[in-house]
Amino acid sequence: MQREKAAECRDAGPSRQITMKRGYEVLRDPHLNKGMAFTLEERQQLNIHGLLPPCFLGQDAQVYSILQNFERLTCDLDRYILLMSLQDRNEKLFYKVLTSDIERFMPIVYTPTVGLACQQYGLAFRRPRGLFITIHDRGHIAPMLESWPENIIKAIVVTDGERILGLGDLGCYGMGIPVGKLALYTACGGVKPYECLPVMLDVGTDNKMLLEDPLYIGLRHKRVRGQAYDDLLDEFMEAVTSRYGMNCLIQFEDFANANAFRLLNKYRNKYCTFNDDIQGTASVAVAGLLAALRITKNRLSDHTVLFQGAGEAALGIANLIVMAMEKEGVSKDAAIKRIWMVDSKGLIVKGRASLTSEKQHFAHEHAEMKNLEDIVRDIKPSVLIGVAAIGGAFTKQILQDMAALNERPIIFALSNPTSKAECTAEQCYKYTEGRGIFASGSPFDPVTLPNGKTLYPGQGNNSYVFPGIALGVISCGLRHIDEDVFLTTAEVIAQQVSDENLQEGRLYPPLVAIQQVSLKIAVRIAEEAYRNKTASTYPQPKDLEAFICSQVYSTDYNSFLADSYTWPAEAVKVKL
């Protein structure tokens, strides 16, 4: 029933679109271009007859043509370039292709291939997408926003490129992340692509290789920090909300730890904003844990959680776990005591030097330890979560120890891209004798156990979270996004995991159902916003789900035929 409802949201049928553009302007505008799907009448009315071959193809045939070209390519980067080029020339066809098999195309337009695309962005760069704002543009951001062709923007993804996935500082090459993220806003959540804006804040880069790269497309100097950096961010936030309104959703993406928490705390109660690396990752990880509880048959507060990593993702997940445990009736202090963290210097304990305030929150009385294998044996966790981007950190010994300590150990290797994963799905299942409950940040192939059972590793991809949140926030006009939104989202995702999914090893719904999951998340967020009087879109729709469906982007082509009709013969009779 839910799948049918989501299909109805997207398949409302073609609608009429009016444009003043004519001739080549139509074919060069990705919002308007339909390629050879333009009818003869449309070609004549839009003055493009003769500019296209004398062939008429339906959208399904065009999708088939793209798939044939896609399959011819053997390199994922080439496939990424193919799809991005399609987005540049025919927007609706691009999203029709993506949504035709989201499980197949998501790893190309986002993780893990987008990481490679960012590293090679100078080579892959074909046509500018989004807005590039530099540190030298301070005092002029407002007029720069006016140069963007769309007057209505509902969602922005912004990065400064300092911490791209697990790849580090990629500077201006990091623009691939906002572009890819917003593509999933549309493909997974139905947010209108022309109401989305990717932004790169280029303040330089500390990556020596990029500074010496002749193809690097960004500013060639070390990163600007301190007050000048803060002034740029303040001006950007003020300029965005001044032009697009206080309801404009601003998602921070891939900022370094030193800035991510600071900027989130600075802006969260003033603007409609969230940080996906902190809060989105937390939501999808907690969703996986809530689903895993249906296998372990106990409560979250019964578990001891150990993090390999203590950065944005780890701290975000830990704080949301605390909220979830509190919801079970456990005190905040008791919940915090169930969570341990390991950073580059070892186990985080009280009295250890150089701990940030965020890390001190989870520091406990314990002797200092450095080796992760020793820490696992000492702490005896039932949940092990990797978010430090250290490939292979979960060794054979650690996985075997987790299996010895727990009947059903929960092991999340969440680091991206695949090369940074703490262990593979096959390693987890092999060394825990098939008892490990596994999830990863990047996709892994199914694993067949010695007993013949095939398990499908759960991918804890943030794309389960941010598209639905964006759709819900935009639909009800939520002004501020608090932590309850992310716990609610985690609960909704976990509820969509069927018993059959769990038996297959999946802790998340199949990606094929992600549009339905996003719709459910959006509806729940809107329901709670109206209940808590935090929505700003009034009057409140009587049927929230139907209203949100009406906001969803359709990948079907519009008709450009003029609204033509006749008058009575007497009325049009020429008077002499």
What is the gist of this entry?
The chain is of the alpha/beta class and 576 residues long.
Summing up helix and strand content along with how strands pair, one would put the structural category as alpha/beta
Largest sheet: 7 strands, mixed
Overall average residue pLDDT: 94
Radius of gyration: 25 Å
Provide the β-strand percentage band: 5-15%
State the total count of DSSP E strands: 14
SS summary, helix count: 26
Unreliable spans are none
- Shape assignment: globular
Walkthrough of the structure:
The chain has helices at 2-10, 24-27, 40-45, 59-72, 76-89, 91-100, 102-109, 113-119, 121-124, 141-146, 176-189, 208-211, 227-244, 257-267, 276-296, 312-327, 332-336, 357-360, 372-379, 396-405, 425-431, 466-476, 483-495, 499-503, 514-531, 544-551; strands spanning 131-134, 155-159, 196-202, 249-252, 273-275, 305-308, 339-343, 346-347, 383-386, 410-413, 437-440, 447-448, 454-455, 458-459. With 576 residues, it is α/β, with parallel strands linked by helices. The protein has a seven-stranded mixed β-sheet, with helices on both faces. Strands 1-3-2-4-5 form a five-stranded parallel β-sheet, sandwiched between helices. It has a two-stranded antiparallel ribbon with strand order 12-13. It starts with a helix and ends in a 25-residue tail after the last helix. The relative contact order is 0.11.
